[in-house]
Specification:
The chain is of the alpha/beta class. The chain has 18 helices and 15 strands. About 35% of the residues lie in helices and about 15% in strands. The strands form 4 sheets. A 7-stranded mixed beta sheet has the order 8-7-6-1-2-5-15, with helices on both faces. Strands 9-10-11 form a 3-stranded antiparallel beta sheet, covered by helices on one side. A 3-stranded mixed beta sheet has the order 13-12-14, with no helix packed on it. Helix 1 crosses helix 7 and helix 7 (about 190-210) packs across helix 8. The two termini are about 25 Å apart.
Length: about 425
């Protein structure tokens, strides 16, 4: 095969790939070829896998996806990788070798969805660009994940979540007024871009079901960040004021945020005058509800610091649990500020079965977060298929895709492919039906 060629591979037939992880869901029967790395792209395909799609993850022999090394390590496995690659199959292929590329193009010709996050121009150089894969499968859904989008002066630049949080203004509104700007504590742009990407893929699949047409879709961290800033963008255009950092507070409401108690901190959210009156009554501060300075939300926002100081003095008089019991009885949105340790012990987490036991050869008792949605057509799994060891499915997937055992052994010998080889595999050609 010539690198960059758009010529179809010979004798490609629509044969079944290796069986998926057994997830029954609305995307059952959809085949996804995932050549992404790090976080955003793999999270996107993780969502598709959890919805029932068969996801085949292409990785480099030896090192694999960079996410495998993102610590801390758990029995030698990066926790990032463990979290966002459950339910997938791993195929280890050297894309620098034309024979490895031929294997991936063969898989692409049989896939409904192709997801990539290469630097601009690299997919085309490899022969894995949209037009090149569309020549193999005209109705393919081709999803590109990038840092800055596919157009504009910065389209070719690399970027990570924190860089794009800064570029899109998120860091400028995160943190306390007296402190420095800070990054959000989770990778909100990686995860958000993955969500938009999964939505785009599902939408494209629906469109294809109606019209028979595939298409290219694209998502980026920059677009996601700008989208998350929608309120601030509108507020600035309306007022001309650059929004300040407000810690746990909210620019539009008061009181809103965290308050120290005797043994920890509580977070409350008051979004209207009715809730404010209830808060004052529950705290024994009824006079504040009738104070002209605080009767209505605009006044409370204007005098936020003054009001917060009055409430803080009262909150310090009791414990977090006592205040939560009192405020919840009054219908006030509130909750404790918990650590990860406390979250894992939270009965609500257990009641929702957010952590699912997962099978992994090196980590007994592993539990992984499930996709945070509920569908009648997506039964909650009793167990999950854990993130795959590197190259675990190379042999099975490529044999099902039409490669002979003899061909595969040659590629293994040359280091083009990697992963375990079944001891009982003969050299007979695999079935094509």
């Amino acid at each position: 095969m010539t690198i960059g060629s758009t010529d179809p591979l010979p004798e490609i037939t629509d044969i079944a790939l290796a069986e998926g992880p057994g997830v029954a869901g609305p995307l059952a029967g959809v085949r996804v070829l995932d050549v992404t790395t790090n976080i955003a792209g793999p999270t996107l395909t993780w969502i598709l896998a959890q919805l029932g799609a068969e996801v085949i993850k292409v990785e480099r022999p030896g090192a694999g996806d960079e996410g495998r090394a993102m610590g801390p390590l758990w029995n030698g496995h990066g926790v990032y990788f463990l979290a966002i690659n459950t339910g997938k199959r791993s195929v280890a292929v050297d894309l620098k070798d034309p024979r490895g590329l031929a294997c991936v193009r063969r898989l692409a010709a049989q896939a409904d969805v192709f997801v990539e996050n290469f630097r601009r121009g690299k997919a085309e150089a490899l022969g894995l660009g949209y037009e090149q894969l569309r020549a193999l499968r005209p109705d393919v859904i081709y999803c590109s994940v990038s840092a800055f989008g596919e157009e504009g002066p910065d389209a070719a630049k690399p970027g990570y979540d924190s860089v794009l949080q800064g570029r899109t203004g998120i860091i400028s509104v995160t943190g306390t007024p007296e402190g420095p700007p800070v990054r959000a504590g989770v990778s909100i742009l990686d995860g958000g871009t993955a969500m938009w990407g999964a939505l785009a893929v599902v939408t494209a699949l629906y469109h294809r079901a109606l019209t028979g047409q595939g298409q290219r879709v694209g998502v980026s961290l920059f677009e996601t960040g700008a989208g998350w800033m929608n309120y601030h963008i509108m507020a600035y255009q309306a007022t001309g004021r650059v929004p300040p950092r407000q810690g746990t507070g909210h620019a539009a409401f008061a009181p809103y945020g965290s308050f120290p108690c005797r043994d920890g901190s509580i977070l409350i959210g008051i979004s209207n005058d009715r809730l404010f009156r209830r808060l004052c009554e529950a705290m024994g501060l009824e006079h504040l509800a009738d104070d002209p300075r605080f009767q209505h939300n605009p006044g409370r926002v204007q005098r936020r610091d003054e009001l917060d100081a009055l409430l803080a003095d009262r909150f310090r008089e009791d414990t977090v649990d006592a205040w939560i019991e009192r405020l919840e009885a009054a219908g006030i949105p509130c909750g404790p500020i918990q650590t990860v340790e406390q979250l894992l012990a939270d009965p609500q987490l257990d009641a929702l079965r957010m952590l699912v036991p997962a099978d992994h050869p090196d980590i007994p008792g592993l539990r992984v977060p499930r996709i945070p949605v509920r569908l009648e057509t997506l039964p909650q799994a009793a167990r999950a298929r854990g993130a795959p060891p590197l190259g675990q499915d190379t042999w099975a997937v490529l044999r099902k895709a039409g490669c002979s055992a003899a061909q595969l052994r040659e590629l293994w010998r040359d280091g083009v492919l990697a992963g375990p080889i079944p001891d009982d595999e003969g050299d007979a050609e695999c079935a094509t039906s």
